[in-house]
Specification:
The complex is a heterodimer of chains A (about 425) and B (about 300).
Chain A lengths: L6 E10 L4 E10 L2 E6 L8 E4 L4 E4 L1 E6 L12 H10 L2 E6 L10 H14 L3 E6 L13 H7 L3 E3 L8 H11 L5 E4 L4 H4 L4 E2 L2 H6 L3 E2 L1 H18 L3 E3 L5 H13 L3 E5 L1 H5 L21 H13 L4 E2 L8 H4 L16 H10 L5 H8 L1 H7 L14 E11 L18 E11 L2 E5 L2
Parallel strand pairs in A: 1-4, 1-5, 6-7, 7-8, 8-9, 9-10, 10-13, 11-12, 13-14, 14-15
Antiparallel strand pairs in A: 1-2, 2-3, 5-16, 16-17, 17-18
Helix pairs in contact in A: 2-3, 4-7, 7-8, 8-10
Chain B lengths: L15 H18 L13 E6 L5 H12 L3 E6 L11 H9 L5 E6 L4 H8 L3 E7 L5 H15 L6 E5 L6 H12 L3 E5 L14 E4 L2 H5 L4 E4 L15 H8 L3 H4 L7 E3 L12 H4 L6 H19 L8
Parallel strand pairs in B: 1-2, 1-3, 3-4, 5-6, 5-8, 6-7, 8-9
Classes of the chains: A alpha/beta (about 425), B alpha/beta (about 300).
Chain lengths: ~425, ~300
Amino acid sequence: MGCDMKILIKGGRVLDPAHEIDGILDVLIEDGKIGRIGKNLQAADAEVIDAADKVVAPGLIDIHVHLRDPGYEYKEDIVSGTRAAAAGGFTSVACMPNTDPVNDNKTVTHYILRKAQDEGAVNVFPVGSITKGLKGESLAEMGELKEAGCLALSDDGRPVASGEMMRRALEYARPFGLTIISHAEDLSLVGDGVMNEGFTATEMGLKGIPWVAEDAAVARDVMLAEFTGSRLHVAHVSTRGSVAIVRAAKKRGVAVTCEATPHHFTLTEEAVRGYDTNAKMNPPLRSAEDVDAIREGLADGTIDAIATDHAPHHLDEKNVEFNAALNGVVGLETALPLTLRLVNDGVLGLNEAIARLTVGPARALGIPRGTLEVGVPADVTIIDPAAKWTLEAAALHSKSKNTPFDGWKMKGAATHTIVGGKVVWKRS
Amino acid sequence: MLFPHKHILGTEQLSREDIQLVLDTAESFKEVNSRSIKKVPTLRGKTIINLFFEASTRTRTSFEIAGKRLSADTINITASSSSVVKGETLEDTARNIEAMHPDIIVMRHGASGAPHYLAQRLNCSVINAGDGAHEHPSQALLDLLTMRQHKGRIEGLTVAIIGDITHSRVARSNLYALTKMGARVRLAGPGTMVPPGIERLGAEVHTSLESAIAGADVVMMLRIQLERQGKTLMPTLREYARFYGLNPENLKGAKEDAIVMHPGPLNRGVEISSFVADGKQGVILDQVENGVAVRMALLYLVGGGEHPQG
């Protein structure tokens, strides 16, 4: 995605949390890389982007995306998914391995990387599976997955049920420098639950998923990370208990990071009322107390990354009775404005918000992106924090429109998404 | 007065006045049910479809008889004979039925919220005949009619509901309806079968059957699903009967003139002993009889009728 053209981004508020840069500066992009950052830069042959009143940030990174390719292209594919990412301001996405076939071998990894290279709008970092076929029975060929280009491994969508298997995965992945991602869920406690257990579920007559199903699994995996000394990243924490467990582990020096989704810090279980299948996801929307705890965790840095768990599903898979609907919502095109809501609400400073969308997720999975350091590939997102717009599900770039935010009034949008020095999205 | 609801999805949506109107209307239809010619022409020309995705004899028959006694044309569709088994979606099934222009669909479905889903998408009226563990409004209304018949009022009654509250749509619908009418509702069941937050719906949660029925005017026993035995929710039916079954001995704790109710079908010797079910305090068959009248009232009111007494 290299590009010979020069771009000069003038007069924006440049934020690079990794280097504690925050000021009205110019950014010059040359040869697809960050060339210079400074005041009053000049470059006669550069295309100039006026960024006055805009925020110039490292390209946003979403480390939890389902591109559904190969196998479920009717929901999403690498082309549509990366286009949605670009429109949402993301320059990099990490895609989950629960495709068909599963990304548990180098051939699938190669396919994803090749297609992303040829047809994708943004960088794609494939996540391989921990166990073959996501079955939890035998380890995937982690060494080859690493060679092929995977930075992290996850059985996302399913927990690694056996404690011994998780222990061995952590031990085996360590010398390869692979991060193990925990989809933390005790399935025996989840049972056939379809929403958060509590008063709302009781009233609606829907089977509940208790918070302890997540907390117990997070606790196990965090203890295993401590025991093995390996790197662990906890996906989509949704309960106060999970946040507390990770916070305490970090204090003890355990190599653990975690992420939270915009829907878990924006919505409560109340959104399920009316049996809205677009509010059905896993982990489920939780209580107001849990939402508060997630926000606190984001503010104090316990939660390193905001990740969308972008989970496209076809209309036919959502337009059914609640019990029968598939779990998941799309998130790439709503994450930025929902994160900026936290800034407007005083939960996060703009700096922290950008950090949770850039350097935080990059460090969690070891993605070599997330800063505006001179010489790195020029992934830059220009944000208009004041842009007011209304989300229309039908207008999403994703093939699937399963969002609980249809009709929401949003504030803040990416005006330019630049990947490797090339503008891949420009807001009209 | 016109009934303000197009659909009957639950007792949660009904006001005190709505419930009063349903009960009064049902009362007037009870007379029709005792005539030798049990038919009035009120819903002549209307088509009612009973769309049942779960097995049911009592409720389906009751709705069918209710429709027929109002001179409507009633058709029964059950899941086993429908195209559901061929993989058709709920929406397609419903749209196909709607294309034949029914006036009312009476629906039972295993998924909570399924009738709400249908009501949002169809033009005809939808009556919920039981959805998952959510609501079963016609059952609660017939229960209220039975209480009123025996106790002369509902306000001020103490009603104990015993059993598997978590999985019971009967319990939820009764809880909404009874609290709206000013009754006091107590609940008790095994610790695994009392759902979190239920007290916020206005119920008193008791830890034993004995404490729940002490001084009660009405004791309502819920049916326990036999297949729950020996799994994680309860050890054995034997132990269930011991601690949560109603028998002549523990019934003495209720008021002397307390009535005993059960939505049926009975598991004799499990949640209720035959001596109680068939004893002088049992009103289970009155419930069934009142079921027809209440369902006539619901069909009539949703079908656009005014109170027959003006």
